[in-house]
Amino acid sequence: MIDGKLLAQMFLSGANNLYNNRRIVDELNVFPVPDGDTGTNMSMTAQNMAKSLLEVQSDSVTRIADVMSFATLRGARGNSGVILSQFFRGIAKSLKGKSECDAHELAEALMQGSEVAYNAVMNPTEGTILTVAKAAAKAAVSAENDILAVFTAAAQEGNETLSRTPDMLPTLKKAGVVDAGGQGWVFVLEGVLYYLQNNKIVECDKKDGSEEPQKSESAQKKVSDQNIKYIYCTEFIVEKRQKGADVLSFKRAIEKTGDSMLVIDDDDIVKVHIHTNNPGFVLENAIKLGTMINIKIDNMKHQHQSLIENEEPKEEEEEEEKEFGFVTVCAGGGIAKIFKDLGADAVIEGGQTMNPSTDDILSAANGINAKTIFVFPNNKNIILAANQAMEISKKHIVVIPTKSIPEGVCAMMKFNSEKSADDNEKAMNKAAQNVTSAQITYAVRDTESEDKVIKKDDILGLVGGKIQEVGKNPDDVLFDLLEGIVTDDSEFITIYYGEDIEEDRAEKTAEKIENMFEDAEVFVKYGGQPLYYYVISVE
Asked: Do 408 and 512 belong together in one domain?
């Protein structure tokens, strides 16, 4: 019979084996972009479980299974991590109420884990981790009622099914790889099998069995004010005198007087935000459009100095619950600042290369005193974790399933505090769907995509996650990419330049884009994002 102690040691060994081989899994990424982190996401999810298993002392199978389920649920990162957590959720459900179990009951638990994982994915695809885990579980159920035989069969069938995944998914065959998530699950099964064969847990190749913690924006309160070029944060709303008010001329008049400018033309009103040294000039031009309300001008240098002088925590009265709160995920100081300017209460650092966990999102939401909290994942690989946070939170969380930074920005710009949560959800979802997002990055390995031969270090232009352009220079690829996505109906082109692009270069690039597309308004903003030279928004 299998007790809780044995179950814990088995899966602790499996989690460690996955961690030790995480780089192999990362390198199986089909896309040659520098964010292939399936191994990282799965291993960090599993290591959260490993840490919990080391802390709990119990002989109960139910208790250990519940610990594994809860730890992976809270620690889930990326789509692969969320799917992994669903396996353990199904295992815990199957083993509920058992102090011990036999090998066949554990095999049945693997099968239920597979079923729960399948049900958690809206459109399950064959040739992925789901296929591998299901085949492994079937083999386990068909094996003799012996724990070694069960996991021998599971690991063997898992490997054989994994080798066939390229025949199930053409994208895998073209890239010459097996499914990354499936490989991750096989490493877990092989780690369990190693323990059963050797009565020894696979050793984790780091001391504490955990990754370096992420630095969240909220933890970095001390910043130098020497970079505050424009002192006054100026915000207001203009109630238009007439619908045909010339908002475009107003934008052109003030854009050179500051930065972090956002001018949102929304039917009968215009929302304005800008950092400037001359708020009077901005207001003088705004009054030509109509009546100004909700005017707010803050001295950012004064605010910063007050923050430094008052670092010691003080007792504060509990703030009144507000109607709406916002959590957003992004990488890059410039992009984080844009989201804060748009009203984000919490900005979680992460995105392409470091997906935040379910618990990171949950903690951020729990720190906001609001009736409804909107979460913007801004990455397709974070949406499942955000949904999982929504499901387990006691707060009213609404996930706007944004897949890119431009989608997140456009969605937040559409927010209207006068409307209901449901109306805002609809409006923000619609806004996110009406923007075209693109990115310029580089290839991390040789590969082929569609009809394109790609070499390591080539510059890639991506639209909607698909490689559209390949070249040698980021600016050239950007220009070629824009030629394909900017249409006669395009009104706004926004370029967020990354940490590897100098401001002068970005400004010159924007000037050329303005000459290319004279009918569109072109904005260039510092994003500071890693790995991606440019992130592009076309509306």
From this structure: no
Residues β-bridged to residue 472:
none
The pLDDT confidence band at residue 300, using thresholds 50, 70 and 90, is low
Residues 127, 106 share a domain: yes
Beta carbons of 428 and 375 less than 8 angstroms apart:
no
The conformational region for residue 406 under phi > 0 = left, psi -120 to 50 = alpha, else beta, is alpha
Q: Are residues 443 and 423 both part of a single domain?
A: no
Q: How high is the pLDDT of residue 450? A: 67
Assign residue 468 the CATH number of its domain.
3.30.1180
State pLDDT tens for residues 3-23.
Answer: 999 999 999 999 999 999 999
Q: What is the pTM of this model?
A: 0.76
**Torsion sign (Cα): 399, 405, 407, 409:** positive
The dihedral over CA atoms of 429, 431, 436, 437, expressed in degrees to the nearest 10, equals -60
Q: What tokens were used for 368?
A: 């906001």
Q: Is residue 289 left, alpha or beta, with left meaning phi > 0 and alpha meaning psi from -120 to 50?
A: alpha
The answer to whether residues 332 and 418 belong to one domain is yes
Q: Which amino acid is at 537?
A: S
Structural domain tally of the chain?
A: 4
- Same domain for 45 and 144, yes or no, is yes
Mean pLDDT of the chain: 87
* Same-domain status, 16 and 70: yes
CA distances to 271, 299, 373, 402, 424 from 427, rounded to whole Å, are 16, 33, 15, 13, 5
Distance of alpha carbon 368 from alpha carbon 372, whole angstroms:
9
